[in-house]
Amino acid sequence: MSKTLDHVIVSKIVRFAYLIEGSLQYRKVKDFTYDLLENDRYRYKRWFDFFMIFIILSSVLILVIGVKKPVPQWLDDYDLYFVTTIFIVEYLVRMWVYSDMHKIVIRASEESRYLHHPLSLYKLVGMIARDKWHYIISPSAIIDLVAILPSYRQIRILRILVLFRAFKMLRYARSLSGFLFILKSKKFELITLLTLTAFFVFIAGIMLYVFEGDGDNPNILNLFDAFYWALVTISTVGYGDISPVTPEGRVVSMLIIMTGVGLIAFMTSIIVSSFSERLIELREDRVVQEVGKKSHIIVICGFGIMGRKVAQGLLAEGRELIVLERDEEIAQKAHSSGYRSICADASQSSIFEQIGIEERISHVLCLTSDDEQNAFIAINVKSLNPDVTVTVRCSDKEIADKLRYAGIDQVIIPEEITALMGVVHAGEPVAFEALRSIIAYKGESHIDEVQVEPGSVLEYKRIEALKTKTFRLIILGIVRLNEEGEKDFLFNPDDETELLAGDDLVVMGHPAAIAHFKREVE
Predict the structure, then answer these.
(1) Which own/partner pairs from 436-442 qualify as long-range (CB within 8 Å, at least 24 positions apart)?
(2) Could you tell me the sign of the dihedral formed by the alpha carbons of 33, 39, 42, 45, in that order?
(3) Which of 14, 188, 258, 333 has its C-alpha lying 20 to 30 A from 165's C-alpha?
(4) What's the CA gap between 499 and 478, in Å, rounded?
(5) pLDDT digits 0-9 by tens, 455-501
(6) Which of 149, 172, 195 delimits the end of a domain?
(7) Cβ–Cβ < 8 Å for 146, 91
């Protein structure tokens, strides 16, 4: 190929790479494809995994059916054309999303311009091929490729490779992949156990062959038979097809049986300890996956007395919530109580990014017993997403003032609330009991709020036009931001009061009436 033609082809490839880089539609398609294949928190990946598991199991079932009787032609066509096409397309798509070829082209082009070296087509193709080769030789890609081979019916021995399609389920069943991760984390211990087992099988097999391989035992014809007996015996399976007949052979048998029991106990302890270490992490990964499919999630940081009470109330209202707790024992207690919980430090940004602070979390309640910890959590959340509503529990008046100045939405001082409730209880005990029953949802009347969204039917509407009597509701007041950006409560507004966007309308009534009113205005 001439240098001129080479330069023309490379130039066109580079221009096309920049075109792809600037294409928003291309990025959307690739991001969607990547999420569907790799992102466990993507809502549609679960259905894709179910579809692929069905394809794999149906393919293996066709192999099983064909053992005893001929497979119907439609099943053979289904396996040959449909299943094979799905596997080939998936293999190619996974290779596509593995890396961006246009980024490789752009990087090579910029380097060549910076170094004043010509970029050859051969070099460009080589860089792309090396990048994709890293994917091709990965274990998961090899399994995908081997799963395609049984489709070629001309080579019948390849049909047995259809069983490798079952290994593809490791991609789609997280419980299986989690088990492999556990085995990988104990690789050193398991390799040590395997080496020890092979050593004992080797020694016991040779000893039995020496003692009984000279004709005393008709079932031991060669060294392989002795090794087979040693492996079956040390695994405590004991088929009984080969048994020692000499006293020396029986002594070897007793020794290897005791060794096998010890090795199995050792292996069991390794697996159980690894499972216990990984179990909490697997559960929390499951929680993150479940949360990834939700929206308007409320995060409770701290599961003390106040955290438990708040969680009970939110659960009774049917809200989606998740508990973050640093103490592993308390986090486990929250999980046992039926709440989604994660053992994590809420002052770290990573946990909120993992849950989805940008699009899923609507409220964060900082309810630990440590004022400084609550302040760190609140500031951390606001730095990640200022639109999230943050409520902080605080006992120190000075810290509370600083939090309000920092823009925290709501700061609650429990001691002040307790004092106010105590005054009400001492002066008006009947009113206190009525208020407590409403707040605690013990009666038929509940208090709720309806937010006035911009452009909604409530915006610019007067109180008299709401027809609350028709809904059998009582309007207690309106929460509205003043000029200083602070919230004011307009108690019992008159009929001429006009609702504005951002107002919170506080109503009281039966839960069914409140729900009906919300449906009407929304």
Answers:
(1) 438/508, 441/313, 441/316
(2) positive
(3) 188
(4) 8
(5) 777 878 887 777 666 667 778 788 887 777 677 778 778 878 888 88
(6) 172
(7) no
257 plus 306 within the same structural domain: no
Joined together, the tokens standing for residue 41 give 């928190």
C-alpha 109/C-alpha 104 separation (Å) is: 8
Question: Hey, what are 28's tokens?
Answer: 């959307």
**Residue 437 structure tokens:** 């029953």
Show the tokens assigned to 302.
């701290």
0.85 exceeded by pTM: no
- Are the C-beta atoms of 522 and 490 separated by less than 8 Å? no
Residues 165, 21 share a domain: yes
Query: In terms of domains, do 310 and 405 share one?
Result: yes
Cross-strand partners of 76: none
Half-sphere exposure of 15 (CA within 13 A, CB side): 6
Strands 410-412 and 389-393: parallel
CA distance 153 to 162: 11
Q: Encode pLDDT of 278-308 as tens digits.
A: 666 667 667 776 666 677 888 888 888 888 8
| Conformation bin of residue 509: beta by default, left when phi > 0, alpha when psi is -120 to 50 | left
State the total domains in the chain. Answer: 4
Q: How far apart are CA 107 and CA 129, in angstroms?
A: 15
Of 115, 106, 131, 126, the C-alpha closest to 15 is: 106
Domain of 194: which CATH number? 1.10.287.70
